[in-house]
Amino acid sequence: MAYNASEAVTSGEYNQLWHRCWSESRTLWDKGDVSPALRELIDEKGWELPRGRGIVPGCGRGYDAMFLARPGLVMVGADLSQIAVEAATKLRDEKGVPADLVEFKLLDFFAFDVPAGGYQVAYDYTFLCALHPTMRSAWGARYADIMSPGGHLIALMYPLVKAEADRDRGPPFLLSEDDYRQALGDSFELIHIDPSCKTHDSRVGEEVITVWRRK
After folding, report:
1. Using one digit for the tens of pLDDT, what is the confidence trace for 8-26?
2. Number of compact structural domains in the chain
3. 133: domain range?
4. Rounded-to-integer distance, Cα 31 and Cα 63, Å
5. Domain presence at residue 7
6. Coiled-coil stretches, from where to where (predicted)?
7. How far is Cα 127 from Cα 49, in angstroms, rounded to an integer?
């Protein structure tokens, strides 16, 4: 199901949409591996991640949460779908990733209890683009609430390009750097951007990786 950017959509409708996608195995966003841009940022460019806790909202099968998990950085993969949570947990166990480094939970990003001290790392890829444009300010405000000062929000901006006929329909909804700046407001500063980052073959020209620091 697709929506127009001008349509009013309730959070309940969106929750039902993702439940249906998972129950009907319509997960076209799932590329089966860690996003190349994230792997490049950490493994090839040596981006230093803060220590503490991290979160990946809309984690799906959890590739990125498992990749980020390491001694000193305990990750949570959050999703609205129990099917996704179970699939991610199963994949984690198959890969032998320690359960004490990454846990997958059924969570509503906008309504869960934040641990004391908040999160020091967050990764947002196919999450903001999945939200209706009317929810973007709430997305930015929620990240400001859950992240500690100095925390890093790694945002792989996508999709930055869409066919003209699909520009106002989604998910995914078309995004721009300015959309991120408006949503994150004065709570974050952009400290890294790489327009030439590696991408999935089918998304060349549609992705730019960024890192935003919580003020």
Report:
1. 555 566 566 666 766 676 6
2. 1
3. 30-214
4. 10
5. no
6. none
7. 21
